[in-house]
């Protein structure tokens, strides 16, 4: 059984602006409910991961903060308008210098706690202190970036982030973790995540949308 040694930082954008490429993906479902469900299912899986001691959600959204604090996450206020990498750095700073910190995107509704535990256990505990990352399913993005204790996270999330993380000295983790790698940016991604098995919040919205949409 993995030791709960990791602090996982999960940034969540303000819901009205979040997941813009998914807007309209589920007819009959308010967009903000879908964006919140993706984050809630991600955080639920992280909280259930035996390798995780604490989940820090970095957000400027009061609704997200209330929901995810209720689920058991610690909320760290987002630096206003600073963007995704600033949110990761802010969360990592709140975790403290001695923590093993991993940054994870909040759009992984098919994430399984055991996959996250396997990925985190593949990060060596000791020197030489190299950061590790897990690329998304297409291979160009990043879903997870992990740093050993005392090593800055130095996040380079955004378009082409797998290459950017590698160029900054981070090494890829190569395990077969389909739910972890399946980030959801578009309706095609959402369908792929549904084939893997969605967390309960997103699954309920998919079911409600299907029931409301004439065949
Ligand atoms: N706290 C915080 N989280 C962010 C910010 N930008 C993106 N995120 C989160 O980072 C993760 C990955 O970002 P994207 O996949 O680009 O998500 P997004 O920006 O909501 O989606 P698009 O509008 O489609 O680009 C998601 O879980 C977002 O909620 C930000 O400025 N602050
Ligand atoms: C944030 C990222 O990209 P996307 O918006 O494509 O999920 C990333 O992969 O680093």
Summarize the structure.
InterPro entries: CofC, MobA-like_NTP_Trfase, Nucleotide-diphossugar_trans. The protein has helices at residues 31-47, 62-71, 84-95, 113-121, 161-167, 178-181, 187-196, 200-212; strands spanning 6-12, 52-59, 74-77, 100-104, 132-135, 142-147, 171-172. It has 215 residues and is an alpha/beta fold.
SSE topology sketch:
Blueprint: E1 6-12, H1 31-47, E2 52-59, H2 62-71, E3 74-77, H3 84-95, E4 100-104, H4 113-121, E5 132-135, E6 142-147, H5 161-167, E7 171-172, H6 178-181, H7 187-196, H8 200-212
Parallel strand pairs: 1-2, 1-4, 2-3, 5-7
Antiparallel strand pairs: 4-6, 5-6
Helix pairs in contact: 1-2, 1-8
Bound molecules: guanosine-5'-triphosphate and phosphoenolpyruvate (PEP).
Catalytic activity: phosphoenolpyruvate + GTP + H(+) = enolpyruvoyl-2-diphospho-5'-guanosine + diphosphate
Binding site for phosphoenolpyruvate: 142, 158, 161
GO molecular function, one term: phospholactate guanylyltransferase activity
Structural summary, described in words:
By secondary structure, the protein is an alpha/beta fold. It has a single domain (6-212), classed as Spore Coat Polysaccharide Biosynthesis Protein SpsA, Chain A, CATH 3.90.550. Helices cover 38% and strands 17% of the residues. The protein has helices spanning 31-47, 62-71, 84-95, 113-121, 161-167, 178-181, 187-196, 200-212, and strands spanning 6-12, 52-59, 74-77, 100-104, 132-135, 142-147, 171-172. The chain has a 7-stranded mixed sheet, with helices on both faces. The longest helix is centred in the first third of the chain and has 17 residues, at 31-47. The termini are far apart. Residues 105, 136, 141-142, 157-158, 161, 183, 185 line the site of phosphoenolpyruvate. The site of phosphoenolpyruvate has 9 residues, from loops.
């Amino acid at each position: 059984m993995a030791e709960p040694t990791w602090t996982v930082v999960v940034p969540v954008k303000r819901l009205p602006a979040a997941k813009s490429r998914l807007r309209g993906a589920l007819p009959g479902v308010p967009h903000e409910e879908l964006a919140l469900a993706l984050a809630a299912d991600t955080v639920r899986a992280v909280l259930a991961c035996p390798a995780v001691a604490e989940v820090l959600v970095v957000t400027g959204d009061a609704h997200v903060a209330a929901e995810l604090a209720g689920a058991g996450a610690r909320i760290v206020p987002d630096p206003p308008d600073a963007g995704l990498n600033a949110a990761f750095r802010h969360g990592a700073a709140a975790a403290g210098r001695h923590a093993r910190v991993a940054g994870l995107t909040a759009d992984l509704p098919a994430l399984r706690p055991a996959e996250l535990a396997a990925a985190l256990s593949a990060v060596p505990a000791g020197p030489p202190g190299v950061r590790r990352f897990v690329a998304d399913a297409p291979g160009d993005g990043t879903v997870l970036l992990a740093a050993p204790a005392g090593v800055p996270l130095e996040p380079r999330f955004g378009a082409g982030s797998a290459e950017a993380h590698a160029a900054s000295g981070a090494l890829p983790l190569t395990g077969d973790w389909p739910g972890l790698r399946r980030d959801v940016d578009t309706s095609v991604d959402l369908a792929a995540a549904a084939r893997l098995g969605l967390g309960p919040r997103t699954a309920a919205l998919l079911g409600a949308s299907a029931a409301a949409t004439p065949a």
